[in-house]
Structures are given as C-alpha cells and as structure tokens.
Amino acid sequence: MKKFWLILKKLLLIASVICVAVMFVVVLTSAMEKQEQVQCKSLNVKIDYESGLAFLTEEDIKERINFLSGGTLEGKKINAIDFRTIEKEMEKNPYIKNAEIYSDRQQNVWVEILQKRPLIRVMNKDGVGYYISENNDRMPLSDKFTVRLVIALGNVQNNMPQRDSAVQNALYNLVKFINKDVFLHALVDQIEVIEEQNMNLIPKTGGHIIYFGNPTEQVAEKFERLRTFYREGLTKVGWYKYKSINLKFEGQVVCEKADTVPAEAENNATP
Description:
Blueprint: H1 2-36, E1 42-47, H2 58-68, H3 83-90, E2 96-103, E3 108-115, E4 118-124, E5 129-133, E6 138-140, E7 150-154, H4 166-179, H5 182-187, E8 188-195, E9 198-203, E10 209-213, H6 219-237, E11 242-246, E12 254-257, H7 263-268
C-alpha cells in the first residue's frame, strides 16, 4: 500500500508539472498573439533643440520615417516596424548624429534625434559653402537654420564627400584650440586659408589682419604672443594703429602701421 501511494504521488507531481507547462505555453502563445496585433497609436519626435541647433523639424522626421515604413506609421503593427533599419537610414541624414526609435507600453512610437554640431563654416574662393562638424565631417549648409561660427575663406576644398584633407584637419584643430579659450573665441571671426601651411586670422574688432602662418606649428606660443601684444600694446596705442600683426617669426610680433587711423580710435587710445 505504501508503495502504491508513493507511485500515486509521483504521478500527481508529473501531472501537475505537465499542467503548469501547458498553461505556460497557452498564456505565452496568447500573449504573443496579442502582441502581434498591437498597433502604433502615435508617432512622437524629440529633437535636441536645447543644444541651440534647429536643422531639422518634427515634420521632417515624421515624413521621413513614414516613408521608410512604407506608409503612415500610426495604425501599423508594432512588431512589423523594423526599428533598427529605420535608425540606420535616419543616421544617413547629414544633420543627424544619432537616432533612437522605440515603442512604449502605451503603444506609442518615439523617435529621439541628436543633431550634428558644426564647428566651422566654410565659404571658399569658388563660393562653395558647407560646415565642418565637431567630428570633422562635412555638412551642407541649411536654408532653415544658420549657425554663427568662425568662417573659413580662401583655398578650402570644394569636394563635399571628401573628408580629412590636410587643410580641413589644420582648420579643425586650429578652431578647436580657439574655441577652448574665451579670449580667442571672442576675438577670431574669420580664417583666411592662403595654403595648407599659411593662414591669416581676421578679428571681429579692429582694422587689422593677423598673419598666423603655419596653423600646426607653435600654436599656443603664437597666441600667447598675440595676447601679450594686445594687453601691453594695442590697449595703449589703439586697435586701429596697425593694419597687420605678423606672428610668423619665432618670438616676435611684427606690425605694419595703418595708413590712416580713425579719429575716434585715436581719441580712445590710452596715452
């Protein structure tokens, strides 16, 4: 009799396990079937406007995503949306640094867009314009939004797809150095590219040009000389006293006097 009850207990245990497994499969299948029927209720876009950039609009993003989805996303089954492929396609946009697409528990689809940040605006001798980004990529100019940046003029390449040219790298590193310094960032308005190893700086104020020379050599030392000259020289004689300031010669600041000096500049100079 004892043996009978042991066998019965084992059979009941096995039956219980089988019942639980069957119930689990039924519940899982039901959940999967239900999930397959879940539809997108809304498409929501978040763009990092707090960065101060506005190359893109929510309408632009929605229109592109709907196109990539083969129609309006709202009402489409969520499990039929290829999020990863859409992200990759969105990141081909020259203004998008990163795109993340996901759905929440309320069946809403969210798109979060991080825009590329431009560092330099190029307007070369042929009239071709574009941006160089903080990652040293080239970005087209936008008719929707313009960023106030250091402008590179002169002999800068036209070829938009090409990247990391010697001139571009030199500009990129020079402007990164300038932007890290409050004084230099407030001073430099334009960079004139004569050739790869010869560039001039044009200040935002003052009637002079700065002959910087090679933008990859003694950069910190040249700017320190310029800073000292401004502090100990121009503040006394006036910003319009010279038409050029030359930093090409090691350890020196060579200046050329302006042909004429505005009267108000003479009056404002420190005696």
